[in-house]
């Protein structure tokens, strides 16, 4: 309720004072969305939020045919990987990345669509170590300034994932260079 007041103790703005009840009851001046409009708004928000979840499992035709010819053992798409670089150094850092992983009998590929993050093959010359920490599998590759680590929580059977990745890493280590 607004009234004209000449009282010096009241809060006035242009001669109109605001009572404490005005501040309590007139707080939201935005229009409310009701019925069908509210449903359509909620549906649009769900659509926008689900579109933000980028898919990471797409490969080029050449990559797909190569991996299928090697025999895919395990595959998981759209996982969150913890990527660590320069571990143990002053400029070390990490970030969470969305990516997919494919394990074949001869290679391990961590990729985001056609872009490769890590590839282990029999031709790999880097130091590779695979560890399992509870439900998390960690793949460490390289050493010194080129050291990097990719860790993830597989969708099922962490011990099996670690063993299959280890098999590929051992094949790379025993390959004559």
How would you describe this protein?
The chain has helices at residues 20-25, 35-51, 61-70, 158-174, and strands spanning 2-4, 12-13, 16-18, 72-85, 93-104, 108-112, 115-120, 128-133, 136-141, 148-152. It is α+β, with helices and mostly antiparallel strands and 177 residues long. The chain has a domain at 61-174: PH-domain like (Roll), CATH 2.30.29. The strands form 2 sheets. Strands 7-6-5-4-10-9-8 form a 7-stranded antiparallel β-sheet, covered by helices on one side. A 3-stranded antiparallel β-sheet has the order 1-3-2. Strand 2 (12-13) and strand 3 form a beta hairpin. It is globular, with a radius of gyration of 29 Å. The N and C termini lie far apart (87 Å).
Compact overview of the structure:
The chain is α+β, with helices and mostly antiparallel strands.
Helix-strand blueprint:
Layout (H helix, E strand, L loop, with lengths): L1 E3 L7 E2 L2 E3 L1 H6 L9 H17 L9 H10 L1 E14 L7 E12 L3 E5 L2 E6 L7 E6 L2 E6 L6 E5 L5 H17 L3
Antiparallel strand pairs: 1-3, 2-3, 4-5, 4-10, 5-6, 6-7, 8-9, 9-10
List keywords for this structure.
177 residues; alpha+beta; PH-domain like; seven-stranded antiparallel β-sheet; three-stranded antiparallel β-sheet; 4 helices; 10 strands; 28% helix; 35% strand; globular
């Amino acid at each position: 309720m607004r009234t004209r007041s000449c009282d010096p103790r009241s809060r006035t703005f242009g001669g109109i004072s605001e009572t404490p009840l005005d501040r309590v009851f007139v707080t939201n001046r935005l229009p409310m969305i009701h019925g069908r409009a509210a449903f359509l708004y909620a549906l649009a928000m769900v659509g926008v939020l689900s579109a933000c979840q980028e898919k990471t499992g797409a490969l080029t035709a050449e990559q797909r045919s190569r991996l299928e010819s090697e025999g895919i053992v395990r595959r998981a798409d759209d996982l969150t990987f913890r990527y660590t670089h320069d571990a143990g150094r002053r400029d070390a850092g990490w970030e969470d990345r969305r990516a997919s992983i494919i394990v074949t009998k001869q290679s391990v590929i961590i990729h985001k669509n056609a872009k490769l993050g890590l590839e282990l093959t029999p031709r790999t010359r880097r130091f590779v170590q695979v560890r399992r920490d509870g439900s998390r599998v960690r793949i460490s590759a390289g050493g010194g300034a080129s050291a990097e680590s990719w860790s993830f929580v597989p969708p099922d059977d962490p011990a099996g994932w670690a063993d299959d990745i280890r098999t590929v890493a051992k094949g790379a280590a025993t390959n004559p260079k």
